[in-house]
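The instructor's notes for this session suggest beginning with a concrete chain rather than abstract definitions. Hand out the sequence below and ask the class to guess, before any prediction is shown, which regions might be ordered.
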Amino acid sequence: MWHQSNWVNGVYQLAARDAILVINPATESPVATIDSTPQETVNAIVVSSLENFSSGVWSQADASTRFTVLSRAANLLRARLPEFINLETRQTGRPIREMKAQLFRIPEWLEYFASLARTHEGRVTPFKGPVVNTLTRLPLGVVVQITPWNHPLLIATKKIAAALAAGNSVIVKPSESAPLSVLEMGKLFQEAGLPDGTLQIVSGYGRETGKFLCESPLISKIDLTGGLATYEAIAPTASKNLIPITAELGGKAPVCFFPSMPIEKGVKAALFASFIASGQTCVTGSRLLIHSEIYNEFVEQLVRRTMSLRLGNPTDDRTQIGAVISRASVERCTAFVSHAMAEGGKVLCGGKPTNVDGKGFFFEPTLIETKAGSNLACNEVFGPVIALIRCESEEEIIRVANATSFALGASVWSNDFSQAHRVAEKINAGIVWINGHHLNDPSSPWGGFKESGLGKENGVEAYESYTKLKSTIINYGQEPTWFDDEVENARYG
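After discussion, reveal the predicted structure:
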């Protein structure tokens, strides 16, 4: 069986003593094995990365050099998309149609941050007196990135591009469930001209390898996409070491439907928001808040369309719903359905595990009519189990939308211009779409409030989060006369 070892200092290393099996969730068949990286190896990699950063080979490289390398990486990735699409489909079980659409855009992140590295400018402040004050941004050092299994290549590339553009040395720990596409990026960046040792890609369990990386006092930042429990596990040590954290921790996105939106269009929107990636995204439209004036007809059409979705082999271009990532995910979906029914929820369609040709981790697209305060309406499933909530007014929709501990994404569907903006303004979420959902761009900051996390991916905000700000104050006329006798108007500050 294929073994993909760690990418460290420009080469794939010898296999670690212990290995982790990567399984195709749609077939339950082995895809490859990866390293389970022990603590002593992790420590050595961090030290090597710090040496790389301190050498200045990348941290002090010209902005034009960073632009060139990241731009080449974008071109190389674009040329190799078919092999990456195939790998993503096999390791995630997501439909190849989704992977083609998503991966087609990933090179844009490398191009955006390449351009930002080349064009980002410092500032000169309006400092009083004969003084020039320049502000410049410097790379942080060695940064650790913990990436998830649901969008393996997209989320890793988001983080890697921003960090490299700013001049950092990067260690990525992809999810052990779907690490293979990320591990392939090492040699791609090497071919693009990135100095060896600037990007290290390290495999292992999050509770072991990920924890070892985040506990190192030699790192300068942690960028995590995962669950609140993962953040809680690493935050105490990071705070002790004064290491900043960017954390994208999930959500419970409300999708708000108002009477001015044509029902047919609203139903299409609900399907897209809710069932892309089998509901395994941080902004899955997992709560459909439907105004009572359109509720009955909306739900009737939505149930009919949901039941007609094509669940099947992810490698078939006609498949619309693929697998969930693991048996544990199937069990989690089942538990949410059972809990919802125990609380009085009504299963309108789906609600059961299924398979394709007797194999795979699949769960039927599921719609459950429930109440705003229910377990299903308040907690993240990370699967295709969606809560439908009838709301009597605009005010109730806003109240319900804001009633969970999450605040990452939300969408408002209304053809009433004033209403759309009014509601969007009142929803407490880091990302609010009007008449859209899942829309993403490298220039658009991505991140939430409350238990959905800290900091932003994408945009200038992400780039600057990978830098530290240095203030240089140049005095060209203020004499140091403070302790001279009989001096008037001496300046202290």
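Then share the key points. The chain has a mean pLDDT of 97. The longest strand covers residues 131-139.
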